[in-house]
Amino acid sequence: MFPLALVPILAHAVLAPGQPAATRAALDARYVHMQAPERVAADEVFLVKITMKNTGTATWGEGFSLFSQEPDGKATWGTNYIILGQGRRIAPGQEVTFSSYLRAPSAPGRYAFQWRAGNRRGQFGQPTEKKTILVTARPPGPG
Questions:
Q1: Are the C-beta atoms of 64 and 120 separated by less than 8 Å?
Q2: What is the distance, to the nearest Å, from the Cα of residue 64 to the centroid of all Cα atoms in its chain?
Q3: Which residues does 75 contact at the CB level (< 8 Å), separation at least 6?
Q4: Residue from 137, 109, 108, 133 nearest 46 by CA
Q5: Helix/strand/coil for 82
Q6: How many CB atoms lie within 10 A of CB 87?
Q7: Successive 10-residue mean pLDDT values, the chain, 143 residues
Q8: Cα–Cα dist 68/78, whole Å
Q9: Contact assessment for residue 117 and residue 29, using Cβ atoms and an 8 Å cutoff
Q10: Can you tell me the distance from the alpha carbon of 80 to that of 116, in angstroms, rounded to the nearest whole number?
């Protein structure tokens, strides 16, 4: 343990003016906005748009996606990832909207809907809000 007399000196050295509080990560993301329905019918295909901001120091490119959460990696919505798209590059500080058509589960119920940025090496940054989507029974068809 440090002698009590050194504590103010150590605190001053750690919190010196002009010293960055933390180094930004190369890969980082912040959730901005999501457009997704509150309710869908079983097996219904619907459009979702999720906007994320690149808050890291590296540019996002091919291989970057949003990955399903809650439960992690499951294809509850017909897939477990939404790709950034071929040829797109998102520089640090830029926002990007991931758009995809997804398919609702076949069984009615309440399902978690949450996504997080990542690439082949893993996931990073802030996930989207955790939304619950109500999946209702499919209406009977004609006949």
A1: no
A2: 11
A3: 68
A4: 133
A5: strand
A6: 7
A7: 37 42 84 98 98 98 93 91 93 97 98 96 96 93 70
A8: 10
A9: yes
A10: 11
SS3 9: helix
- The answer to whether the pTM exceeds 0.85 is no
Q: How many CB atoms lie within 10 A of CB 96?
A: 21
Positive/negative CA dihedral, 65, 71, 73, 74: negative
What one-character DSSP code corresponds to residue 22?
S
User: Token digits for 121?
Assistant: 């090496």
- Bridge partners of 114, per DSSP, are 69
Contact 26/54 with Cβ under 8 angstroms?
no
Residue type, 33: H
What are the backbone angles phi and psi of residue 33, rounded to the nearest 5°? Answer: -165, 155
Q: Which tokens is 84 given?
A: 């950034």
Q: Are 77 and 102 in contact (CB under 8 A)?
A: yes
Tell me the C-alpha distance between 44 and 42, whole Å.
5
